[in-house]
Amino acid sequence: MGSLSGIFQRPVVAASAVALASVSADLRDKIWPSKPLDTSLSSEQASGCTLDLVNETKWARVSDISVCKSFATRSSLPVPKFRFPMFHVENSCHSNNMAFKVPCFEHLHDVYWSAELAKSPRPFDYYSSECNATSTDVVYRWHLPCPNAIDLSKNSKMVVVLLGWLGAKQKHLKKYADWYTSKGFHVITFTFPMSEVLSYQVGGKAEQHVELLVNHLADWLDEEDGKNLVFHTFSNTGWLIYGAMLEKFQSQDHTLMERIKGCIVDSAPVAAPDPQVWASGFSAALLKKNSIAAKGYRNTEDIAAKPTMSEAALLVILEKFFDVILNLPAVHQRLSNVLVQLKSGQPSCPQLYIYSSADKVIPAGSVESFIEAQQRMGRVVRSCNFKSTPHVDHFRHEPELYTTQLSQFFKDCVLDSRRHN
């Protein structure tokens, strides 16, 4: 790899320069936010779904740490022992959205008495070694169910693991976590710092973070019977992380695979190491809202939209870069192992694929061909084509359709299969 540094030095510098150029646009968006989009569903959008739409109540906004004494005394919660005299807890389930302070260690001990860790320490927030304790860019975070959640007792023994897309941070996954915790689920939001993705090495820090999360989940499942997992992955990055986690579950204890009760795949997959797809993904992560990938098919202008000259140049550079990187023997072998696991070694749980014909990173045809392959293997597969929404942006553009798909999938496939078991 050392000999490659000179070859790729200029492409990486160019990518960094383009990323810096996008900062001004991000500031503009924060100062003058765009108006909310119309969330009404067109007949064309609805026709792309394999599920009938049902009415869905609006999801409640809940905090990262939502607890109350009555709930904590009934359920074993995955939070560490506290050693501080005061702890600040935000609870936006309250109507006034006010934060409150727990003033003493004794009261904290009462609230969390059932949450002591039986085995190894398991962090509530796990930080990368490159992040400090005050950073919000943690690798993974555990969100507790909202105490006032619908179906709390039925769902509180299930963890939904959200595996973020390339460049995603905890704040980007919070709206998904809020929806799940409002339904009574535990949620883990998992992201990679961009620096660790760019400096990826087989068996390096990135895979160590995955192993840490797998060990954490295995300990949680081992505490008592009836606990299960559901994975919700975003883009090819989240989907490949899911494949790596499946490998580790299988090598540790193959019975852990039986505890996975569902998998939701958002904006993925492309089941091959395609340099063009990787280039599009990295370009979208670097340029964010300035990328062509952030545009769906809302009007004729969007359909005809082309990447800017700077993005087109970046895409050419990145594609050449990944054409070399993905063919390095160690990287190619590692990716191949994960892809084999995802193609033929997934657990026998229902799958839901959410994608869009307007996705400029992941071609809809690649998603549909993978769905067909899974169906030929006898898998229970559902899907919804959102038609006009951009890459990993379906929830923001079509929240009612998105949450309806999730609710129906859990009702018909995940929770129903758990009852039968």
UniProtKB/TrEMBL annotation:
Record membrane topology: Single-pass membrane protein
Coiled-coil regions listed: none
Domain of life of the source: Eukaryota
Annotated InterPro entries: AB_hydrolase_fold (IPR029058), DUF829_TMEM53 (IPR008547)
Principal cellular location given in the protein's record: nucleus
Membrane-spanning residues: none
Cellular component terms (Gene Ontology): nuclear outer membrane
Protein location: Nucleus outer membrane
Matches recorded under Pfam families: DUF829
An annotated Gene Ontology molecular function: hydrolase activity
Keyword field: Hydrolase, Membrane, Nucleus, Transmembrane, Transmembrane helix
Family listed: Belongs to the TMEM53 family.
Name of the protein described by the UniProt record: Alpha/Beta hydrolase
